[in-house]
Amino acid sequence: MSQSINLYKLNTEGLYKYLCQLLSKCYSQGYKTLVKTKDYNQAQEVDNKLWTFAQQSFIPHGLISDEFKESQPILITWQDIVKSDFDTLVLVENIVDIPNFQRAMIFCTEDTQIQNIKNLIKQTINYYTLNSKGTWDHQTI
């Protein structure tokens, strides 16, 4: 299991905005991050959003199918997770067993996904919901 698990519940419209913000923060803090999406199309969408997210700066990233994937600080995959030298795992609407990472961050848009996560993960989870003010409410589940 991961040492730290954060679960973010938000609406579909805000998913990519907040995902890009989190990945930008992961990059700036030097985390080597693996992003696991539910399928190839969603991986392409994350890739496209990262290219256009910040006008002033670029967030280095790549897809698992790209050349030089080993050198990417942020790697996006839709394939099974193979632990390598990544310390951070980000799951995007894709609830799978979490291999041993230092930290895991899970983005979900449906309440049923939250229950699935609680059933799968038998440790304390930091649960964040986006409120109407655009800030995060926190609780532990």
H/E element order: EHEHEEEEHEE
Uncertain spans: none
The CATH architecture assignment turns out to be 3-Layer(aba) Sandwich
Q: Could you tell me the mean pLDDT?
A: 88
Determine the CATH topology.
Rossmann fold
Shape: globular
Task: State the share of residues found in helices, binned by percent.
Answer: 25-40%
Tally the beta strands.
8
Main sheet properties: 8 strands, mixed
Radius of gyration: 14 Å
Supply the CATH superfamily name.
Answer: DNA polymerase III subunit chi
The CATH C-level name is Alpha Beta
Provide the β-strand percentage band.
25-35%
Walk me through the structure.
A hairpin with a 5-residue loop joins strand 7 (126-130) and strand 8 (136-140). An eight-stranded mixed sheet has the order 3-4-2-5-6-1-7-8, sandwiched between helices. It has one domain (4-140): DNA polymerase III subunit chi (Rossmann fold). The model has no long low-confidence stretch (mean pLDDT 88). By secondary structure, the chain is of the alpha/beta class. The protein contains three helices and eight strands. Helix 1 (15-28) crosses helix 2 (40-52).
